[in-house]
């Protein structure tokens, strides 16, 4: 992992510079007779290729940001979606690995010089590579198959450097995901940085989830075997990656995975008093016995009392079109900026479309639906955009909102039809009247 701030900054700066250079080149090709559509498609493909190459090779905060963006790819307009979809999806599970010698050095530092004696087998070739660490397959000394997650040396420096630089380019990245607020996303990633780097804390989070879902017939959380500040060892689980189901799964499988994902998202605040806060397809698998396996617990929201009941009340009021009561509740809980004049009907018009998945027994989450919502709230000339500027999301709810939006993005990638209303009625306090 490149550590020096100057080197990382130069690579990140190459993204906007490269896009600008290709735009000039595209203008030249237009002059030589190529159609606007041909030129646009070529530029999109090359921009996506460069985006993956830079974010993936840097790992750290750059790749973490790319993974966060990847769940919103369903909102990207169809004419430019394909190359970005392919590039961003790669970020969910793959990146250039670190050499075996470096991996051994980290394991020796974290587990002791005789670390090899704790394993019956250890595969030097990583099974997966992520933003701040990579995963190796091994066999523990007692015969259990294990996943060994090893943090990249220099990950802390890289995260700090990346997130500072990415915030400078937030307007550029905004164009990749219309309707998604990139600047607050980067701010949240920066705030969670220390959590992401602390593998001991991650292991504790995973233990808490595993205890809450022990024996569950639908959700599987791998049990932690051992942990250190920069290494987590947990039970190995085999399954079909969510990205593969998104790419080629049949309708029945897509719908079932969508239902399982939604059940997990809404049930965990009640069952574990925690919310898994890294919802991208690389963190989920479907096991052979039909359970949803959940991975990576570096980022969680701690909800000792579950999701606040007024969230459910607001959702129900918006769904039922009760604008005056909705407006009163929004003001009471700080969701309207102080001193702003807002029409209750305008606020209802802005929020009600988000409750469409709960209006009927089942709802079909599609890319087209998400693109419609992103276009509606992202249109700077529209009334909904102006209304959104007067609304406020209190800091304590930022992660809940972002995770819900990310999970919705995955449902739209899955093209899943699920009984969303029944799930929300079961798990969301305040929704059922």
Automatic annotation (TrEMBL):
Task: Kindly list the GO molecular function terms attached to this UniProt entry.
Answer: ATP binding; kinase activity
Going by the UniProt record, its keywords in alphabetical order are: ATP-binding, Kinase, Nucleotide-binding, Transferase, Ubiquinone
> What region holds the ABC1 atypical kinase-like domain?
90-314
Family listed: Belongs to the protein kinase superfamily. ADCK protein kinase family.
**Protein name, as recorded:** Predicted unusual protein kinase regulating ubiquinone biosynthesis, AarF/ABC1/UbiB family
């Amino acid at each position: 992992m490149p550590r020096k701030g100057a080197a990382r900054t130069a690579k990140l700066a190459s993204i906007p510079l490269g896009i600008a250079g290709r735009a000039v080149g595209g203008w030249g090709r237009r002059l030589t007779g190529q159609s606007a559509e041909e030129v646009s498609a070529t530029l999109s493909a090359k921009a996506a290729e460069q985006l993956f190459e830079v974010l993936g090779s840097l790992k750290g905060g750059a790749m973490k940001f790319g993974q966060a963006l990847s769940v919103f790819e369903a909102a990207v307009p169809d004419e430019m979606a394909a190359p970005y979809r392919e590039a961003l999806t790669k970020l969910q599970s793959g990146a250039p690995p670190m050499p075996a010698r470096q991996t051994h050095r980290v394991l020796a530092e974290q587990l002791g010089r005789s670390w090899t004696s704790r394993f019956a087998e250890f595969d030097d070739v990583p099974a997966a590579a992520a933003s701040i660490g990579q995963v190796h397959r091994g066999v523990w000394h007692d015969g259990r198959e294990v996943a060994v997650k090893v943090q990249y040396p220099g990950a802390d420096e890289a995260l700090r450097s990346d997130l500072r630089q990415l915030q400078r380019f937030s307007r550029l990245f905004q164009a990749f995901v219309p309707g998604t607020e990139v600047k607050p996303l980067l701010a949240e990633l920066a705030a969670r940085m220390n959590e992401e780097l602390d593998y001991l804390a991650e292991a504790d989070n995973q233990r808490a989830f595993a205890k809450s879902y022990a024996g569950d017939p639908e959700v599987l959380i791998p049990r932690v075997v051992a942990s250190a500040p920069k290494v987590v060892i947990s039970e190995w689980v085999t399954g079909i990656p969510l990205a593969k189901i998104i790419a080629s799964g049949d309708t029945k499988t897509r719908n079932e995975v969508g239902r399982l994902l939604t059940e997990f998202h809404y049930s965990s605040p009640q069952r574990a008093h925690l919310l898994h806060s890294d919802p991208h397809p690389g963190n989920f698998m479907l096991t052979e016995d039909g359970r949803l396996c959940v991975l990576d617990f570096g980022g969680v929201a701690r909800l000792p009392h579950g999701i606040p009941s007024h969230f459910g009340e607001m959702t129900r009021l918006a769904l039922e079109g009760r604008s005056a009561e909705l407006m009163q509740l929004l003001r009471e809980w700080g969701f309207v900026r102080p001193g702003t004049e807002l029409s209750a009907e305008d606020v209802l018009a802005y929020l009600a479309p988000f409750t469409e998945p709960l209006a009927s027994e089942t709802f079909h989450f599609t890319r087209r639906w998400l693109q419609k919502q992103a276009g509606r709230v992202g249109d700077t000339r529209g009334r909904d955009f102006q209304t959104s500027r007067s609304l406020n999301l209190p800091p304590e709810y930022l992660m809940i909102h972002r995770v819900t939006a990310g999970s919705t993005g995955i449902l739209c990638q899955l093209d899943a039809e699920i009984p969303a209303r029944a799930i929300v009625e079961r798990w969301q306090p305040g929704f059922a009247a």
